[in-house]
Amino acid sequence: MMILLLITATLFTMIGTAMVLLDYNYYNGLQYLATALAFFTTAYIIKVGKVDLDSATDNNHTQIMAGFMITVVALTITFVALSIKGLFWAVGITVFIIGMYNIYKK
Questions:
Q1: Of 22, 65, 16, nearest in space to 42 by CA
Q2: pTM attached to this predicted model
């Protein structure tokens, strides 16, 4: 899980930076950068040992993976309106963070 988070966060950092600096697509670029920050932070917390994914329940794993997938899909789809895309992104990142918080507080 940590390697997947690091790869995705690195790619999202590059894409977000390019969108903000070169494409002037600030809204989507900031979404990519905020997502990369959340993924880097989560990978750091896992690496330090504050979150033990092995002791998490299946429900918590499902929350984290669902949030991860919704976030990634919401950022990569281009055929929907910007407002719907932002809503899906917000739901995905919220579900991801809540899943991590549920594991962290145990």
A1: 65
A2: 0.86
